[in-house]
Amino acid sequence: MRVREAQAVDVPALLGLWEEFVAHEEAFDPDEFDIGPAERRRYEDLFVSKLSDPGAAIFVAEDGGRLVGYTMGWKRPRILAKGSTGYVNDVFVTEGARRQGVGTALVRTILAWFQAEGVSKVDLYVYAENEKGKGLYDHLGFRAIAHRLTKELE
Predict the structure, then answer these.
(1) How many whole angstroms separate alpha carbon 131 and alpha carbon 108?
(2) CB 61 within 8 A of CB 93
(3) In a designed cystine with 122, which of 3, 63, 72, 86 is the match (CB 3.0 to 4.6 A)?
(4) What is the CATH classification number for the domain harbouring 132?
(5) DSSP assignment, residue 97?
(6) Is residue 153 situated within a structural domain?
C-alpha cells in the first residue's frame, strides 16, 4: 500500500470511494443524507476544484493499483486567532482495507502536508457513535474540544 497525491485521473475512483463513504456515514445519521445524481455531480466538482487548489490536498491510498482510501482537506483562515487552520473534510478507507494502517497513513500524510503549508492547527468532525474513527484520531493526538448539536426544524 502506498499513499500518494490524487490526480485528475483518480476522480472516477474517488467518486466510488465517496459513495462508499456516504453509505458508511449514513449509518450514523440516516436523516442527514439524501444522495442522488445532483449531489454526486457536486462532489465530483468539489474533487476537481480541490485538485487544482493550492490551498487544498487530496491523498489516496493505493494497493495493487486499486484505490482503497482517501483523505481531503484544505486550509482556511482562523477566526479570532493568527495563522490558518487546516480542515480535514473526509477520511475514508474501504472495509476490506481497514485495521491495516491505511487510515493512519492517510491522516499522517495530510497532517504533514498541512504542517509544510504552515498550518498550526487541524480540525475535523467525527460522528459521536463512530468509535473506530474516534480511536484513530485519538491515537494520532486529536482531542475533542466541542460537541456539534443538531435539531431538525419542521
Answers:
(1) 19
(2) yes
(3) 86
(4) 3.40.630.30
(5) G
(6) no
Look at residue 150 and tell me if it is in a domain: no
Give the chain's domain count: 1
Q: Which domain holds residue 60?
A: 2-139
Q: Which residue has the cell 498550518?
A: 119
Inter-axis angle of helices 102-116 and 131-139, to 10 degrees?
50
Assigned domain for 145 exists: no
> DSSP character for 9?
G
Instruction: Establish if 152 belongs to a structural domain.
Output: no
Give pTM, 2 decimals: 0.90
Instruction: Please state, in angstroms and rounded to a whole number, the distance separating the CA atoms of residues 12 and 92.
Output: 15
pLDDT digits (tens, 9 = 90+) for 19-77: 998 888 877 877 777 777 888 899 899 999 999 999 999 999 999 999 999 999 999 88
Block residue for cell numbers 468509535: 131
Q: Is the dihedral of CA 2, 69, 49, 16 positive or negative?
A: positive
First to last CA, the chain: 47
Instruction: Please say whether the beta carbons of 109 and 126 come within 8 A.
Output: no
The CA radius of gyration of the chain, in Å to the nearest whole number, is 15
